[in-house]
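TEACHING EXERCISE
Course module: macromolecular assemblies
Task: Read the component lines below, then compare them to the predicted structure of the full complex.
Student: A.B.
Group: 4
Components provided:
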Amino acid sequence: MTNVTMPMLETNPLEINFDRRQFASAIDSLISCSEARTASADTCLSEPMIAELAKCIRTNLDCADICQATARVLSRHTGYDANISRTLLEACIMACKSCADECERHADLREHCRICAQACRDCEAACRQLLAAMQ
Amino acid sequence: MTNVTMPMLETNPLEINFDRRQFASAIDSLISCSEARTASADTCLSEPMIAELAKCIRTNLDCADICQATARVLSRHTGYDANISRTLLEACIMACKSCADECERHADLREHCRICAQACRDCEAACRQLLAAMQ
Amino acid sequence: MTNVTMPMLETNPLEINFDRRQFASAIDSLISCSEARTASADTCLSEPMIAELAKCIRTNLDCADICQATARVLSRHTGYDANISRTLLEACIMACKSCADECERHADLREHCRICAQACRDCEAACRQLLAAMQ
Amino acid sequence: MTNVTMPMLETNPLEINFDRRQFASAIDSLISCSEARTASADTCLSEPMIAELAKCIRTNLDCADICQATARVLSRHTGYDANISRTLLEACIMACKSCADECERHADLREHCRICAQACRDCEAACRQLLAAMQ
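Instructor-supplied answer key:
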């Protein structure tokens, strides 16, 4: 795989009032986090202790859907509306934080929860940075 | 099609601290709005005056993605997190309002824009009601 | 909620080589099935016997994603490509059948599995009808 | 962004009857292709010659939705069903090929179409390889 987010953003002819590198980095973190969440929900499903992981699975599914929608909205620059992007980033930060908190509770015992928690923290940080730049 | 949102919600064994009918109504509005947005973006694409509709298409695509993610999150009740739902509802209200405002500008000339604007206003109202009940 | 699928399709100015009513009916079944799957996966997560339902949850999640993507593709008529629609409908029919088979195994004990199985069978039938019309 | 697809797949305790590296590579190509499609549809929307690009935009939107659903399905291994994965891969191959063909028609004049066409061809190749391994 070649990463295409930044090359695509560089060819966009519109004026973008933010650091394109920061934008691309947030989008990549969101996409990567969404994929990690989908995979993690599935790995939890195959665990013998699945009943303990019900809340974790739900949080993973939410986080995957929210990160994916946000990545798509941030990838569009025609007729840009900063208010919608900001509110979505806030929802993402909350979902990533909640998911990381939940995953970290299981991270000692499960390697996939540790990887997941890290992807959530990275995504939370990237969203916070972009949100700060947008204020 | 038989509507299954309310029957599914009625069989959920969890305690849900809200009027299930209001919840189901918001989910149905979100799903319906998401479908209207996808169809509307496509109808705009086939218009001869497509260049005037670029912002409208973009807003439609955003609104479809945000409503869809929100419908999914609201359909989950295991390990419920009110803060995430509330922030997503706020993003939906903004996206639906922005989309309705844009569609209404073209509603005199285009019947599909009129239908779309109405679906957005209905969804905006249903999200506002649910958000108020969640406060 | 007012159903907007058929009104939106009626205002599409493009020539559509199929019965628009059949198209709208398939889209509505796909959307309804996708919502039922998301809700059902969540209800399974809250069951005490969750370990028995792992495969059921996974099938629900797949079916929700496939039905949703197919509903979106079928909602677009600009630059229509029948081969893509047909292959997606085939994937949907398989996913709905597989999900209905799995849900029916639990339908005696769980009302939500019975409702789900029915939504899957309805969607499978609507997809088969549209696929037959497209051949 | 750190790529998490392969690390997540390595921690999955289930038996997976395929080369995990090939699986992860296909998932990464699908995610990357989906993001490139969303960005490309938006860049087309901002072009002065938008009317010429209507079919290109539609194909981009379809391809984004199909690749995204397929990446999610391939990321699940609990209760795996090879038939569904295979049919979805076939739909992806068709959508990527159709999108690449369309983008290549504009690739001389537009750098973003050239990048997009390449991402589609990479994704088409990765899907073909995985499909061949699954037969």
